[in-house]
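Quick note —
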Amino acid sequence: MENQTPRTIDADTEDFAALFAASEAQAGPVQEGKVVSGTVIQLTKDYAVIDIGYKSEGQVPMSEFSPGPAGEPGVKVGDRVEVLVESRENDTGMVVLSKEKADKMRIWDEISAACERDELVEGVIVGRVKGGLSVDIGVKAFLPGSQVDIRPVRNLDKMIGEKFKFKVIKFNKKRGNIVLSRRVLLEKEREELKKETLKNLKEGAILKGVVKNLTDYGAFIDLGGIDGLLHVTDMSWGRIGHPSEMFEVGAEVRIVVLKFDPATERVSLGLKQIQEDPWHRADEKYPVGTRVKGKVVSLTDYGAFIELEQGVEGLVHVSEMSWTKRVKHPSKLVNQGDAVEAVVLDIDPKAKRISLGMKQIEANPWTLLEDKYPIGSVIRGEVRNVTDFGVFVGVEEGIDGLVHVSDVSWTERIKHPSEKFKKGDVVEAVVLNIDVENERFSLGIKQLAADPWTTLTERHPVGARARGKVTKVTDFGAFVELEPGIEGLVHVSEMKDERVENPRDVVKEGDEIEVKVIDMDLQERKVALSIKALNRDGGEEDYREYLRKQGDGRARLGDLMEKFNRRK
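Predicted structure written out below.
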């Protein structure tokens, strides 16, 4: 028995070694970096234990398994999973495995196969990177900005989170480099759509399209593989400041083809042409005299444009805004956006013009003036303005009357009204005339007193002697003031019996002299005087006889009066 014991131990040892060797041979060697299939045999808090048919089990971090909807573990005992062998054994004697890396290797293989078959891949844009976007197609891939769309995309960030199909245009597994393109797919789709669109594209055709881009001058509409321009002037019969007031990118619109050039593939589109031109019946809707309401849409130096309805605007000229106010600019009365009332003054549908008046909403105050201020009545007002030709006197709010310089005085020679008046003076005047049509109110100050010329013959009858002051001496005679503002002329021929070469040798300015009235023209306001007639006896008859001896006395007097007129 003693001799048998060692032999039994050796036999058992040899049997165990044989079994172990057989087990090793059955399991086969496990190579690092290889993807193998295994079964989950145990779950711990941090790891899933997986039997991969090796002498020892492997472990995979639980974080590599996506959790379920309710937060439960993403794997259970018995599941078959593919894992990557990272190392044979760790310090605990377990094989180090990775499901995540195995998945990525499988995805790389699938992508490689898709490239070989020229197939598309699907992915989600997950972020913005330098030069483009990062896309998750199972692994991270790069989408250059130039390959995002057919047209440059200004805001790439808005595409983050979107899911698309892509074409792989560059693939390098060793470097882990994948470059994608969405543009090539869109161009291919667009080319197919274009062929179908061209079949229906002709002038007058009504099509549907999608707003692709907005500019200051219009909107580009995608008709399906080909773009058309909808100019801002063809969007609406009304006024549009910017296309964004009517459209937004991505909106579907119904438009009509205005023009199509097959050679250049340029398409001009219209939207307002689908609707009736509102001017076609404008004269029926807005006859002359109609009271209308509208909105101020534009102001110019000469007036305000009022929108009566979309596409129909009328002009209120600055002169038609107020009966009494002198409106220098429409902005003094209205602002853009104001709602106003007006009256249609004229309409021309062919020229697409409507003339409007705001002041016609109220009664014309000028039509009431004749009753309030009859001709000959006296008014009292403030001097509002002084001009070269007269002064404007306030009659009532917004209405001024003009006192012309010629109506200031019967007798004074006024070179400029400022000699007598200044702004703010309060004056009285007589109403001379009211012109309602031309809105003119004429006043006179001199008419407050009687015209001294009407009674001049009573004070200075022809043939009577008078005394006066020499106010001016000229080559043809001397002017003598008979009374304030009334002068007569002593012609050089009426100074002495003998010939006088120079009137200044006889009289000088400022002299007080005695003269005789020899003629008078009240209508022309002229008086002829004589010095030499004073030396003749016999009165007026002797003097007229003297004139007859000298020739045609009236003719000579006419010459004298003509010179007097020139002097005046």
